[in-house]
Amino acid sequence: MQAIETEWKGYRFRSRLEARWAVFFEQLDLSWNYEPQGFILDTGKRYLPDFKVETPYPFDYWYEVKHEGIKEDDKFQEFSESVDNRVGSDDDHQKFPKLLSGDPYTALCESSYLICPSCGGVQGDYYNTPPRGKFWDDRICDPCDYYTPYGSGNDKMSGQISPFLPRKGVIKLDGYGAGHRETFNMKVSHAAKEARQARFEHGESPSI
After folding, report:
1. What pLDDT score does 56 carry?
2. Cα-Cα-Cα-Cα dihedral of 73, 97, 117, 53, to 10°?
3. Cys staple from 7: which of 59, 123, 193, 203, with CB 3.0 to 4.6 Å?
4. Phi, psi of 153 (to 5 degrees)
């Protein structure tokens, strides 16, 4: 069965599933780009990841979107292995490849993925059962952990999707407590619902 190509924000997505992830990134004010760059893998194959999402840190996420239930892909695995061998390319921005299975609502509200409030990166499975309504809970975000100086006296960065104070190992929300955590959860939930409910008719902008 052929996927329906969809136009939005000046991009022509290969599928509506990809377009829904673009809506999700847009709703969270993340800096994203669709298929910005192709790569020649160490095996000699050519590979074009679906999304590049920038972070306040010296690393970017490179996402590959697959239908629900597909959590492994041979070519994506080759890309991940090739990236591991080339740390520091592209203006010293490290690449963190992630495979996204299903639409944002499925991944974050019905599965066991989380999202980091510091870098905005979608993190992998942490639970045997879905967290149900919470999308971040003091779990370690490995990329942020690597680039966060030790201690709690670091300056806040601009462009983040929620106020935070970096700490080595665990990223805390600074001075907002459970109330701000709830606000963050509601923001992610809203973005995921907007992405799922977006209606793309004949290439038009979604009604969100």
Report:
1. 82
2. -110
3. 203
4. -100, 20
Number of H helices, E strands in the chain: 6, 10
Q: Indicate the pLDDT class of residue 100, thresholds 50, 70 and 90.
A: very high
The whole model's pTM is what? 0.86
According to DSSP, residue 138 is labeled: S
Query: Number of C-alpha atoms within 13 angstroms, CB side, residue 117?
Result: 28
**Is 111 in a helix, a strand, or coil?**
coil
- pLDDT, tens only, 109-139: 877 788 888 888 998 766 566 566 677 766 6
Sign of the torsion formed by the C-alpha atoms of 133, 31, 168 and 156: negative
CA 77 – CA 99 distance, rounded (Å): 9
Fold of 6-138+177-196: Trna Endonuclease; Chain: A, domain 1 (3.40.1350)
**pLDDT tens digits, 35-93:** 999 988 888 889 999 999 998 888 899 999 998 877 778 889 999 888 865 544 555 67
Helix (H) or strand (E) holding 21: helix 16-27
Cβ neighbours of residue 41 closer than 8 Å, sequence gap 6 or more: 47, 75, 78, 79, 82
Structure tokens, 58: 């010296």
Q: In the chain, where are the structural domains located?
A: 6-138+177-196
- CA-to-CA distance for 91 and 196, rounded, in angstroms? 35
Contacts of 186 (CB under 8 A, 6+ apart): none
